[in-house]
Each structure stands twice: as C-alpha cells, then as structure tokens.
Amino acid sequence: MKSKNFFMQEAIKEAEKAKEKDEVPVGCVIVKNDKIISRAHNLTIRTNDPTAHAEILAIKKAAKKTNNYRLTNCDMYVTIEPCPMCAGALIWARIDRVFYGACDKKAGACGSVINITNNNKFNHTIKIESGILQKRCSKLIKNFFKEKRK
Amino acid sequence: MKSKNFFMQEAIKEAEKAKEKDEVPVGCVIVKNDKIISRAHNLTIRTNDPTAHAEILAIKKAAKKTNNYRLTNCDMYVTIEPCPMCAGALIWARIDRVFYGACDKKAGACGSVINITNNNKFNHTIKIESGILQKRCSKLIKNFFKEKRK
Predict the structure, then answer these.
(1) Rounded CA gap, B20 and B80, in Å?
(2) A15-28 residue pLDDT tens
(3) Residue of B73, B60, B63, B141 whose CA lies nearest to B102
(4) Which residue among A60, A84, A107 sits closest to B51, beta carbon to beta carbon?
(5) How far is A138 from A8, CA to CA, in rounded Å?
(6) Do residue B70 and residue A63 have CB atoms under 8 angstroms apart?
(7) Distances (CA, A) of A35 to A69, A75, A143, B34
(8) What's the ipTM?
C-alpha cells in the first residue's frame, strides 16, 4: 500500500504544473485500489472556464476512464480544501474519501467556510482528512499570490 | 424587454430535450442584455460525467462565447433550484441573478437544503427569485421519476 504522503506528492506535482502555466497552483489525483486513475490541475484561465478546477477535471477524467459516472471506492488527494462547486461534484461522484493538504479559509467547503461533504441532508457523505503535507501545499499557493501582488 | 416567463419557457424547452434523451429533465439559459447567450440541458448519463448538469454546461458555453470566465451582468433561468456544485460554479462565474422554477428539497443550494448563493462568507452573492413557471418545471421532473418507477 502506498502512503498518503506518496499520493499527496503526486497531487503537488500537478499543482506545480498549474503554477508553470500561471494558473492558481492546485492539483489532485484520484486513487482506486492503490493506483492513480486520474490526475489534473487547475486550468481556469487557460481554458477560459470557471469550472475547470483540478477536482472537476479529475472527476471527469476518472468517470470517462472507469466508464462510470459514480466513482465508488475512489479517494481524492488534493492540495487545497475543495470549494463548494468541487465538494458538490465529489458528492455527485460518490467519492469515498478526500485527503487534502491546506485549508481554504475563504472558500473551503469541507468545514472551513461551510461543510458540504459531511452534511446528512445530502444523500452521500465523504470522509475527510486534512493536513497531509500541509506546509508544502500551503506554501505553494501563498507564494503564488505573493508573487502576483508584486 | 422580454419577460421572466419567456426565458423560463426557453429553459423548459431545454429540460424537454433532456427528457427526450432519458436524462433528468433540467434545463437552463443564460441571459445578457435581454438575449440568450447560452443554453443547455442535463447530460450526465449520456456523457458519463457527474458534472454535466445543465447549469455547468451553460456556464462553460457562455464563458467560451463571451471570452471571459466571469459572466458579469448575466442572469440564469433554470427549471430547478441549483445544487451545491452548480451554485458554487455560479458564484465563481459571478452570475448576477438566478431565476428558478421549482425548489429542490433534496439538493437545493439556494435555500432549500443549504444556502450557498446568498452567504456573505463567500466573495460573491447572487440574487435569487424562485417560482417562475413553477408548476410546469416541477411537473416535468415529477412525471419523469414517476415513469422511471413504473
């Protein structure tokens, strides 16, 4: 079994690809049976698409690949806490668990601002674990915006 | 100026297209300066994509068309209350107003289950008006599931 840190490292590689493209550095991977079945990074600016967050792109790829729009028994590793849009998509996709690096105090929907992923009013809840390689995930995004402000 | 009912009628036409394809009948249009700039219907099953809700598809099309991932001064008319994923996408797209037909007691994120569109913790709020051609919008979806259960 590969470690949580291993998969988060892969998510960070994706975030770094976003950074190279001058996109907000968020990356993720979707894991099934200890294998990465899909990976993506944020591409909102380049694709001119407000929905092109890493998580949405990875979900779409994984659904195509598994030929199933329900990603049962799949986990997501993502560098930053998912926003309401992505958390909602993760519920529709029936993702099992989400492991994220850094909290998003402005838009986090797994507990930081609101809690969509663990709300019994919805027909699916997602197990959440935060803080995986947190410092690296957080630094990536903080440095990006620091550079931007210069 | 065209009426709200006019635009909702167009959203209903989209929902009917979804129904013909055996997809959950939800449809929407995005309106700017009294003109429809994008229209879409739910396509989750056919495209094998849990994110292919009418609202997400319409946002993507409108962003491509206006060459701007922010849909400022745009309104959405949608037959059913947006879910968390779509409500989140509408915030990222900076949509001005959402007019919807019927409430969604199971997944509505504009007040029915949770309220994402009017939450001051997020950096954008959306004006909501519900009940436009409500009976027709509601009947479309209720009849669809009634047929399914047979």
Answers:
(1) 17
(2) 999 999 999 999 99
(3) B141
(4) A60
(5) 13
(6) no
(7) 18, 10, 30, 49
(8) 0.96
